[in-house]
Design a protein that fits this description.
Shape: globular
Strand order of the largest sheet: 1-2
Strand content: under 5%
Oligomer: single chain
CATH class: Mainly Alpha
Distance between the termini: 44 Å
């Protein structure tokens, strides 16, 4: 879903950028009142994990791969406002440092990868919670289903943007059918990874999961939270493991959007990235000849950047709010 520059015409790209800035800007105001000191580290860990997990492309069909979007996952862990900002941070780091996703496409990439999956996915999560038991397993099941369908919502959002800003003479219904079809398959992987991630947090710190805030300890099988230090270390090590080890097994085939662009004939609309010759472009470290080490260094860099930006941003917002309240 990382669209390059050129997939949509400039007017639509600009409108998407304005919408994305407005929503994320308002979200920053909301986030300052929603995050407490205990959840701020989770925001940094979530950003790091989503970055690392997105480095792993898994096969979904012949010659096509997918990767985690993470918007719904982040919303369930942190709430849709904070979750959308966390994924927006990841998308921004990927575009500026790793040349993944175009600069002029940042607006619609943030909408499609952060905002739509976070808010649409969380709405589906709340709906599915009504049909699942009030328990940790119910939260995990609702997470998996909502996360899977959030990918389809993201695909539909790009298709709608294509309707108004197509860069090639390919009909909307053709793009919509192709996008939804392939992302239904990608959604299976999204649901599986998201369910595991939420299950892991519920097992260690159930008190931090926004989507399970209505459950008491008995409904969560009386799970005793681990210490904050243990949780942060465990989360950081998980993100590092994905970035350094799991990423080495990623498949090189095109992802869903790229496959649709190739099959429908608008891949030539893509323009080269302005930072395509950067130090970490395409998740390879310039100057390191060994591909394994090159990828690992780039992955570690991305994990560290996303964790620091995510944690620092929300810590700054929290402190600014505290100073304002004291005045």
């Amino acid at each position: 879903m990382h669209a390059p520059d050129g997939f949509l015409e400039a007017p639509v790209a600009i409108v998407c950028a304005v919408i994305a800035v407005a929503i994320i800007g308002y979200g920053l105001r909301m986030a300052s009142s929603q995050l407490d000191d205990n959840r701020i580290p989770l925001a940094g860990i979530t950003a790091a994990f989503i970055f690392a997990a997105q480095m792993f492309n898994f096969p979904v069909a012949s010659g096509t791969t997918g990767h985690l979007l993470g918007g719904c996952l982040a919303a369930i862990l942190l709430g849709p406002w904070v979750g959308s900002i966390v994924v927006a941070v990841v998308v921004l780091v990927q575009a500026l440092v790793f040349a993944d996703g175009g600069l002029s496409a940042l607006g619609y990439n943030v909408i499609n990868m952060a905002i739509v999956p976070a808010f649409g996915g969380f709405a589906l999560f709340l709906l599915f919670r009504k049909f699942f038991p009030r328990s940790a397993s119910g939260v995990i099941g609702a997470t998996a289903l909502a996360s899977a369908l959030s990918v389809v919502l993201a695909a539909a959002a790009f298709s709608l943007q294509w309707l108004f800003g197509a860069s090639a003479p390919v009909p909307f219904d053709t793009v919509f059918g192709a996008m939804v079809g392939v992302h239904l398959l990608i959604g299976i992987g999204e649901g599986f990874i998201s369910g595991l991630a939420v299950g892991a947090v519920l097992a260690s710190r159930p008190d931090l999961v926004f989507g399970a805030a209505d459950l008491d300890r008995k409904e969560l099988a009386d799970r005793t939270p681990v210490s904050a230090r243990t949780f942060v270390i465990g989360g950081a090590l998980t993100a590092v493991f994905f970035a350094v080890v799991v990423s080495q097994f990623a498949f090189d085939d095109p992802d869903g959007l790229e496959r649709v662009a190739e099959d429908q004939g608008f891949i030539d609309s893509a323009r080269d990235h302005a930072f395509g010759s950067g130090v970490f472009a395409d998740y390879a470290t310039s100057g390191i000849g060994n591909e394994t080490i090159s990828l690992a260094v780039a992955g570690l860099t991305g994990v560290a950047l996303c964790a620091l930006v995510g944690y620092g941003l929300f810590r700054g917002l929290r402190e600014a709010r505290s100073r304002t309240a004291q005045v």
